[in-house]
Design a protein that fits this description.
Blueprint (H helix, E strand, L loop, with lengths): L2 H23 L6 H26 L7 H10 L3 H11 L4 H23 L5
Helix pairs in contact: 1-2, 1-5, 2-4, 3-5, 4-5
């Protein structure tokens, strides 16, 4: 995986988590800027998964191949799910959903860092 890209995903997802919680505490639904920011987080996450998938196809084999493949696929599903939820249910709890999805991306990225160890 690419270090700066991983760092970007971690920082962006952490910002999105805090923004979602702030929105919920303020008793407001996510606004347009927050939803656009979520799309940027998703773009970085998709790019990260594409790089990882490409390296897997080209022969890189982590110790836990199946788990790594699962993480690479599932990590790109969180933000779109939360984004759709936030657009369909315009309440303060939509911010919580956005925060949880971003936190999942953050946690899964940390886990992918540990999984990205070559098999001996």
């Amino acid at each position: 995986m690419i270090g700066p890209l991983v760092d970007a995903v971690l920082v962006l997802s952490l910002i999105a988590t805090l923004w979602g919680l702030t929105t919920a505490v303020a008793n407001k639904p996510p606004g347009a800027k927050q939803l656009i920011f979520a799309a940027v987080v998703e773009l970085a996450t998709v790019l990260q998964s594409l790089v990882a998938a490409t390296r897997l196809v080209l022969g890189f084999r982590p110790v836990e191949l199946a788990t790594t493949i699962g993480y690479v696929i599932v990590i790109v599903l969180w933000i779109p799910f939360a984004w759709l939820w936030a657009n369909s249910e315009r309440t303060r709890f939509s911010g919580v959903v956005m925060a949880v999805a971003a936190l999942c991306v953050f946690a899964m990225t940390l886990r992918l860092i540990t999984l990205w160890t070559p098999a001996a």
